[in-house]
TrEMBL record:
The keyword Nucleotidyltransferase applies. The gene is ispD. Belongs to the IspD/TarI cytidylyltransferase family. IspD subfamily. This is 2-C-methyl-D-erythritol 4-phosphate cytidylyltransferase. Pathway: Isoprenoid biosynthesis; isopentenyl diphosphate biosynthesis via DXP pathway; isopentenyl diphosphate from 1-deoxy-D-xylulose 5-phosphate: step 2/6. NCBIfam families: ispD (TIGR00453).
């Protein structure tokens, strides 16, 4: 097993609106972060996990993962996702210096199926410098101006919705973060700026990012259906 997984989990969950850091919000009594870390470790291709937690919750996060029997290092996250990943990457390079494959996986995508994790790792191990799971667009997409008036209808056949885990050759991700000026909406975005090709594999609807109360309700229902098929 060559992959190290970085789990940005330091967000506040403003859009979820529960007043609790999102990664600590329970689904069926278990925090999202615990579901996410268990999913990574159970996939069978991840050897070490580093979680970036809200700075005030580092000790509590380490305790809840330990109680769940999950081995993971917990470091303080940063002001935005990019900063949280940067901190987790720095720690991972120190504790697992021989890692070749690095995954970056949102705690908020807590129910990502193992086959997606395995496909990303396999593609990087096969030689791709950067790999992201994607889904085709189900809806027509419009581009709008600042006033909300439509300015274009991009060809949706050429568009994809992007999920995590995103997988990288360790040297490529390290270089991307060293060159990063501003924050990016995803890690592959930083790699693209280096001119390095980013490959895609098929994502999965269950890898959805739990962002809103509606998403949380969907996640509860999906887990319920899995446990009571
Ligand atoms: N400073 C931050 C902000 C976000 N994240 C993490 O990045 C992932 C994707 O972010 P998002 O879903 O937007 O989470 P939040 O930032 O918590 O959500 P919101 O924007 O609604 O506050 C989440 O696992 C989140 O915990 C992080 O580690 N550090
Ligand atoms: C990385 C990501 O999950 C890919 O879709 C997404 O870009 C994170 O965005 P957010 O604004 O931090 O939720």
């Amino acid at each position: 097993m060559t992959a190290v997984a970085l789990v940005p989990a330091a967000g506040q969950g403003v859009r979820l609106g529960l007043g609790t850091p999102k990664a600590l919000v329970p689904v069926h009594g278990t925090p999202l972060l615990t579901h996410a870390v268990r999913g990574l470790l159970d996939a069978g291709c991840v050897r070490h996990v580093v979680v970036a937690a809200p700075p005030a919750e580092v000790a509590a996060t380490a305790a809840l993962l330990a109680e769940a029997g999950l081995a993971a290092d917990v470091v303080p996250g940063g002001a935005d996702r990019t900063d949280s990943v940067r901190r987790a990457l720095r720690h991972a390079l120190t504790v697992v210096p021989d890692a070749r494959v690095v995954l970056v996986h949102d705690a908020a995508r807590a129910f990502t199926p193992p086959e997606v994790i395995q496909a990303v790792v396999a593609a990087v191990e096969a030689g791709a410098p950067a790999v992201i799971p994607v889904l085709p667009m189900a809806d027509t997409v419009k581009q709008v101006d600042g006033g909300g008036t439509v300015t274009a209808t991009p060809d949706r056949a050429a568009l994809r919705v992007v999920q995590t885990p995103q997988g990288f050759d360790v040297e490529v991700l390290t270089r991307a973060y060293a060159a990063a000026g501003d924050s990016a909406t995803d890690d592959a975005g930083l790699v693209e700026k280096l001119g390095v090709p980013v490959a895609t594999v098929m994502g999965h609807p269950c890898a959805m990012k739990i962002t809103t109360p509606f998403d949380l309700a969907i996640a509860e229902a999906v887990l319920c259906a899995k446990r009571n098929p």
